[in-house]
Specification:
The chain is an alpha+beta fold. Helices cover about 30% and strands about 30% of the residues. The protein is built from three helices and ten strands; from the N terminus they run H-E-E-E-E-E-E-E-E-E-E-H-H. The strands form three sheets. It has a four-stranded antiparallel beta sheet with strand order 1-10-4-7. Strands 2-9-5-6 form a four-stranded antiparallel beta sheet, with no helix packed on it. Strand 5 and strand 6 form a beta hairpin. Helix 2 packs across helix 3.
């Protein structure tokens, strides 16, 4: 796995174990990465490219891009406490992208062993929320 700042300070053995547990996949522009309603046991980390997070409206054609997941950013499920979750949104490659699929259990294990990883993930989530609030004119 490329050296993401989230794991850069971890011991080599822990980085290697995460790399071995993860899978790198390539996606073409407009290719689905994860479908809404699909069950997954992965956290998605963008190594290169850009993903759209799409919320599906009730009416046909009412889909809305609610977030962008760029290089070095993560798409996490609602919680790391469960090994798998059902996606509430669709992820679509907005451009050719390389994405690491990291098992939720492996990420949770890193957070338990190295609390600074959990703090960094929380920081990423806070920054994403702050950016979204800014776009909505709420903060």
């Amino acid at each position: 796995m490329y050296l993401h700042t989230l794991v850069a300070g971890l011991p080599h053995a822990d980085r290697t174990a995460l790399d071995e547990a993860s899978e790198l996949r390539a996606y073409q522009c407009d290719e689905p990465v994860l479908a809404s309603g699909e069950w997954t046991d992965r956290v998605y980390c963008v190594a290169s490219g850009l993903l759209h997070v799409v919320s599906h409206g009730r009416a046909s054609g009412a889909d809305v891009v609610t977030d962008l997941i760029g290089q070095h950013d993560f798409f996490l499920g609602p919680s790391l406490s469960e090994d798998r979750y059902q996606a509430k949104h669709t992820l679509v490659a907005a451009q050719a992208s390389s994405v690491y699929l990291i098992p939720v259990a492996a990420m949770r294990g890193l957070c338990e062993k190295h609390p600074q990883v959990a703090v960094k993930l929380l920081g990423i989530a806070i920054e994403r929320t702050r950016a979204l609030r800014g776009q909505l004119g709420l903060g």
